[in-house]
């Protein structure tokens, strides 16, 4: 069973403090918790009393709606020559001073369109409350730490309750209407319903406290007030006939209500169950019809008596909170992005460090490999040279003339060969070079130097050096 969002309804009346938290489900209205206290029994300041009840029963501090009892309100039915909403608002602003004996600064007002009547005319219900009455209640709740979303009049709550539970089965035509009298502790609310709307409401300053005394004078006065209210209503809505008058609320102490009142008021009268489909216990001297109606339809509250300056303040506060939330969100986003960038950079730096470490390790290994390769080349060259030494010596031995002897043979890397020796004459050196050039295993044969030492009396007086490149390995 899915529950609607819980709502708390608060009434600070002249004699009772009523607080109810509840909601609706498919099975009907559900009351979670409630508190009903007589003001005469409350000794501490009202804000402290409300705060104490709130803490004791743990009422929700959100979705709070309050209402002004009907006997503290002024309601007028206006017939305005326009159907334009903007024009209607301007007309009401102009006429508001004529409707109540207070200045515009001393009141709070709201209105709703009831019906479009003859061509170009609109019927409007205007609800007016003294500003101090509304502010006092809002201030008390504010001191108790409770923020009120809407302030309406009790009649609207009664309307939603009656419309939900009792109006649909009546099936009235456009020319018919029904009257509901909701009796509370010290006042009664006379409501006239036409076309499914609350078309008229009038306060009667007689309630269950007066009717319970058993004094016939109050009952007579009550009947007179009902007759007068019915006549005023019928004058306001000419041609619309009320088919019956229903009574709800604290009507248990009214003697022979259906019979006596039907005869005296010349209209069928019935008593309806004020707690239909609701599981709650209340004092028989009070009515909670308004509370139940607002619990059922909190989102459809049309009359709102919260002063404009408070609405603007609340709107600004809401915008301030939104801006704060946006600022916090932006700050969090920037911090998150900064953190992500930092993590990314740190990850890159860590990765770069790892790469450098790997490169350094590889570089050391590479240097070792280069050194090994160089050593291998040296060894290979040496092995190549060593392997061909005997062959080279054999070639030189068979080529060497008798008039030349060698003093040194050098075999270097890459097959470079140097031959140093002495000859009897310079011509013998050149013959030796020619023989070497004719050998297929030698190339680039060159005479580095050849000198004759005249001071030396030796037979071999010519020194020489011949270089060549031995390519015997390439040939193999």
Structure description:
The chain has 476 residues and is an alpha+beta fold. The chain folds into two domains: 7-306, Nucleotidyltransferase, domain 5 (2-Layer Sandwich); 388-475, 2-Layer Sandwich (Gyrase A, domain 2). It is built from eleven helices and 17 strands. The protein has a five-stranded mixed β-sheet with strand order 3-2-1-4-8, sandwiched between helices. The chain is rod-shaped, with a radius of gyration of 58 Å. The mean pLDDT is 87.
Compact description:
The chain has 476 residues and is an alpha+beta fold. The protein is built from 11 helices and 17 strands.
How is the secondary structure organized here?
Blueprint: E1 7-12, E2 16-25, E3 28-38, H1 46-57, E4 64-68, E5 74-80, H2 85-99, E6 107-116, E7 122-130, H3 131-143, E8 148-153, H4 154-165, E9 176-183, E10 188-194, E11 197-204, H5 208-211, H6 216-236, E12 241-249, H7 257-265, E13 269-271, H8 289-296, H9 308-399, E14 404-411, E15 416-423, H10 426-438, E16 442-452, E17 462-470, H11 472-475
Parallel strand pairs: 1-4, 4-8, 9-12, 12-13
Antiparallel strand pairs: 1-2, 2-3, 5-7, 6-7, 9-10, 10-11, 14-15, 15-17, 16-17
């Amino acid at each position: 069973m899915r529950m609607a969002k819980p709502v708390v309804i608060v009434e600070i009346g002249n004699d009772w403090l009523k607080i109810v938290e509840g909601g609706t489900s498919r099975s009907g209205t559900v009351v979670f918790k409630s508190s009903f206290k007589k003001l005469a029994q409350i000794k501490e300041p009202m804000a402290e009393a409300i705060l104490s009840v709130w803490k004791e029963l743990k009422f929700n501090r959100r979705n709070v709606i309050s209402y002004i009892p009907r006997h503290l309100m002024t309601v007028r039915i206006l017939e305005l020559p326009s159907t334009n909403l903007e024009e209607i608002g301007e007309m009401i602003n102009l006429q508001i001073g004529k409707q109540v004996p207070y200045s515009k600064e001393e009141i709070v007002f709201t209105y709703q369109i009831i019906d479009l009547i003859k061509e170009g005319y609109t019927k409007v219900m205007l609800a007016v409350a003294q500003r101090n009455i509304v502010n006092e209640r809002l201030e008390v709740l504010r001191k108790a730490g409770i923020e009120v979303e809407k302030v309406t009049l009790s009649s609207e709550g009664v309307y939603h309750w009656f419309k939900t539970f009792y109006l649909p089965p009546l099936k009235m035509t456009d020319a018919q209407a029904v009257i509901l009298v909701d009796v509370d502790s010290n006042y009664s609310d006379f409501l006239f319903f036409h076309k499914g709307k609350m078309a008229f409401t009038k306060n009667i300053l007689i309630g269950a406290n007066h009717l319970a005394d058993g004094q016939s004078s109050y009952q007579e006065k009550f009947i007179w007030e009902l007759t007068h209210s019915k006549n005023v209503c019928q004058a306001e809505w000419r041609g619309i006939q009320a088919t019956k008058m229903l009574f709800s609320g604290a009507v248990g102490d009214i003697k022979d209500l259906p019979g006596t009142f039907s005869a005296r008021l010349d209209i069928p009268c019935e008593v309806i169950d004020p707690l239909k489909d609701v599981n709650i216990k209340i004092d028989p001297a009070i009515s909670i019809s308004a509370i139940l109606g607002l619990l059922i339809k909190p989102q459809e509250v049309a009359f709102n008596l919260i002063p404009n300056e408070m609405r603007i303040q609340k709107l600004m506060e809401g915008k301030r909170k939104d801006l704060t939330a946006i600022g916090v969100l932006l700050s969090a986003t920037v911090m998150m992005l900064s953190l992500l960038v930092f993590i990314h950079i740190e990850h890159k730096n860590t990765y770069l460090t790892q790469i450098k470490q790997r490169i350094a390790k590889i570089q050391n290994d590479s240097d070792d490999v280069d050194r090994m390769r160089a050593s291998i080349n040296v060894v290979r060259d040496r092995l190549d040279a060593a392997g061909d030494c005997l062959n080279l010596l054999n070639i030189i031995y068979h080529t060497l003339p008798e008039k030349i002897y060698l003093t040194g043979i050098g075999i270097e890397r890459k097959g470079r060969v140097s031959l140093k020796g002495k000859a009897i004459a310079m011509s013998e050196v050149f013959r030796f070079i020619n023989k070497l050039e004719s050998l297929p295993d030698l190339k680039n044969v060159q005479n580095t130097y050849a000198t004759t030492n005249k001071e030396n009396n030796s037979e071999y007086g010519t020194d020489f050096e011949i270089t060549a490149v031995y390519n015997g390995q390439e040939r193999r």
